[in-house]
Amino acid sequence: MKRWLILLVALAIGSMVAGQSSGYRLRVVSWSCKAFARGVLVQGTVRNISARPLQDLRANVWVVGPGLRMASNSAPLKDRNLMPGEVAHFEVRVRTSFDSVNRCELWFRNARVIQIATLVPNPR
Questions:
Q1: How many CB atoms lie within 10 A of CB 31?
Q2: Which of the two residues, 74 and 20, has the higher pLDDT score?
Q3: How many CA atoms lie within 13 A of 3 on its CB side?
Q4: CB count, 10 Å around CB of 61?
Q5: What pTM value is reported for the model?
């Protein structure tokens, strides 16, 4: 009987730990950052990994070029409201005055300009 009680307590604690959120609300499934004449195209897909719907989502991009010159832009996701587990496509075009890109930074925000914690892998 004592062993069963210990096992039940251990399972309860384990399920509470497993059910806790990592703090991230979005996960970028894949994305790319491609330079072209006077601009950069960033596109990919993102998944809502939180337990709640996310509304009015925008993808934001910062592009760093030679000599630390910067450019930025944002665009709404095609599916602005993302239910838990749903995946949405995003695409942001950034006009630049430089032809090569040293780095692209991607992040997401809502309509109130609050940044949403996102797991972002390196672009492909």
A1: 22
A2: 74
A3: 0
A4: 22
A5: 0.77
Task: Specify whether the CB–CB gap between 34 and 5 falls below 8 A.
Answer: no
Give residues with Cβ within 8 angstroms of 101, minimum separation 6. Answer: 33, 35, 40, 63, 64, 65
Q: Which 3-state string (H, E, C) describes the chain?
A: CHHHHHHHHHHHHHHHHHHCCCCCCEEEEEEEEEEECCEEEEEEEEEECCCCCECCCEEEEEEECHHHCEEEEEEECCCCCECCCCEEEEEEEEECCCCCCCEEEEEEECCCCCEECEECCCCC
Residue 84, both tokens: 């838990």
pLDDT tens digits, one per residue of 44-90: 999 999 999 999 999 999 999 999 899 999 999 987 889 999 999 99
pLDDT score of 4: 46
The rounded distance, in Å, linking the Cα atoms of 44 and 39 is: 17
